[in-house]
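Minutes, project check-in
Item: structure for the 143-residue chain
Input as provided by the requester:
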Amino acid sequence: MKGRKRHVVVDTLGLILALVITPANVQDRDGAVPALRDMNRVFPTVSKVWVDGAYNGAPIDELRTTTGLDIEMVKRTDDMKGFVVVPKRWIVERTNGWFGKYRLLSKEYERTLESSKADVLHAMSMLMLRRLTTPPDARKERR
């Protein structure tokens, strides 16, 4: 996506808990801080968070102490060659893959960050509604 970054916090099912969209020049860890703060404010019972290796440094350490979140970094080890599914990281990657089904999210058409956020939340709402209204057997047939 040109010019924007999506900082998504998801639960273990891949459903969005918090979303912050920033300009592309914002560091990953700097975009994660408001996303994790929003998640902690709305879902105060969440105590453990798995993050990518890019989410480290002083802002994350400060967030750890102020919110009490147990932030664990999931990194690839040096002995992993080629493509390897990294535990826990695939959950958010799967969510990003679901967004690939929505043409609206394939390119950045919106002028404002708020409109971009609304598009992502709209796509997630459609995905959740489809799961609620379609019987499990019918979903298997569509695959």
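Outcome recorded: Strands lie at 4-10, 16-23, 48-51, 70-73.
No further action items on this chain.
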